Structures are given as structure tokens and as C-alpha cells.
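Title: [Solved] VCBS repeat-containing protein 3D structure

Original question kept below for reference.
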Amino acid sequence: MRKLLRSCQKNEVRLVLVLFFILWGVANLEAGQRIKVQNAREKDSGRFEVTGLSSRITEGKGPDLPQAPGWPQNIWGAYWYAPMKGVAFVDLDQDGNLEIVAASTNERIYVWDYLGNPRPGWPQTVIGLPQFGVAVGDVNGDSLLEIALTTWQTWGRAYVFDRDGNVLPGWPVSFNNHELFETPALSDLDGDGKLEIIMGERDYPMGYLHVLRYDGTEFPGNWPFKLDGVPGAGAAVGDIDNDGQKEIIYLSVYSVYAFESDGTLMPGWPCTRPGCEFSYSGPALADFEGDGYLEIVCSCCWDSSGFFVLDYQGNLLPGWPRPTPDEWSYCPPSVGDVDQDGDLEIAVGNAGFFGPEVVFH
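Solution (posted by the thread starter after getting help):
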């Protein structure tokens, strides 16, 4: 009965959030958005809380901050999912200037030059909603950059485009029209000069982790791997155990997984924490101890909202987890030496409903 009540309470919270996003989206269509310029002040136990100013975007006038020539660019999307989640800056044509690549929930992928002009061959229309950011890299080893992305909502597809907007042979890929989740990760797992494409498949109430080759076929090994729930976030790739080989860190909604490149689980994994669920906030990898081994930073939501750090064997590091004031982190953690003291800090973004938008530890 307690589990049923807990489930009902969560569903009520989620329903309220959905209604909020719908009303927020309608309001934004009428009155524009807000951009917050944040400052941080130190709180207790090494935590920083953001305060600061806001800059308003008014309809038809653009932001108060000066814009580059040819910008902003207006694109529309399904406002209840937001137009996009991040853009990519990359020199596609190798002329020394960066192009801007964005996916939008109007089922299109855009590429502009730095002056805001559409690059020849773009935009391209896809099947499904490409809400998540794109990944860019030399997927097929031809010394040119390709663009990889996933779509979801009704029809899920995985795409790889060349820089001119052509779909590469073997793509798009579909797994029974199931939704494909989050920005794919690109990495050369076998050292052949071509990038593998790593992504999650949502087959509610379960999910799968796929590793695909440049031609859309499944990478050799124990792939796809069946998860204990739907995908929770994107993948991170790195040599976490300092053995000279890359590992894959991935989250279901319930667990943290660490895989060898052939799809076998590493000892000590998966890691599951009571009351912790993962939603959109992907893992980050960093060597906090300076010993050549990478730690894994994860952020969880709902009952045990906060973030924690695991070693390569799945053990919780001393001093973790640390709570966040909001129930939903949404954004992946970022790691860097913020105060230039020689030690790494972690920044985690909140949804912003019940607390500050950014917390540092």
C-alpha cells in the first residue's frame, strides 16, 4: 500500500509539472522567455547557491544582450517538449569558421554558418521528434565530420548525416519504431578509425543499450544489452579502470551500469541506490583522486534527489551523496576547477522549481 501511495504521489507531481510546462509554454508564446545571468555566493559545507539578475527577451525585439549579425534565428517546435536541448558548434567545412547545428521538435535539423545563413543541404526533415542535442564526429573514417542524432515520441529513429545533409548508407535505423533516447555518444571502441554510435532504446517498461557501427549494424559483443528499466540519460565513455581500454557508463531510470566495450558488465556493476531514479541527467567522468582512475558523477531525482560519486568498482566515495534542494536535476553534472585551486569542483543544475538553479560542491 505504501508503494502504491508513493507511486500515486509521484504521478500527481508529474501531472502538476506537465500542466505547468503547458501553461509556461503558452505564456512564452505570448510574452517571450527569460535569460538569467547568475552569480554565486558561498553557502554551508562548500555549497554555492546562485543569485543574480535576469535579462528579458521581448517578442519581436530579441534579447537585451547584443546579437551577432544574422542572429537570432527563429525556429518553432512542440512547446511541451521545448524546441531543442542544446546546440553544437563545429567547423563542418574546415574553413576556420564554426557552423551551428541544432535539432528541433518541428522534425527538422538545422545547420547555419556564423552569419546565420542556412548551410547548403539544410534543414533536413526526420521521422520523430529530435529534441536532444546532436553529436558530431568523423563516424565513417573519411576525414569529414558527420552529424548523429536520435528521435523519439511516436516514431524513434537514429540518423547519421554527412555535412551536406545526405543520410549515410545504412541509416536511419529503427528498433520497431521504439523511442530512442538522448544525444548519442560517439567513440572509437575498437581502434579502427571509425566511431561507434551509442544510444538507448525505450521499450517500456524496459529498455536496451545499443552500440552501432558506422553503417548502422550492431557492434560485436553482448549488444544490445537489456536494462532493468527505460533509459535514463545519455552515455559517457572513458577508461575508468586505467587498463588502456574504453568503458561505457550508462543509466537506466533505476541503475548505473559500467560496460566493457563488448557489452559485458564490469565487476561491481550495476549500482542501484534506494529511492534514486535517473531522468535526463547523464553521468560525468573525472579523475578526482589523481590516480589515473576515473570516478563517475551521477545525479538522481525524486525521493533521494542529489548527486554522488562512484569509483570504477561501483563504490560510493567518502562524503557522498550530497543533496540538492530540488527534486529533479534534469541537467548532467559538469566538472572543472572552478576556483583554480587545483581541485575539481562539480556543478549540478536543478529544474529550478524548489531551489537555486545551480549548486556547486
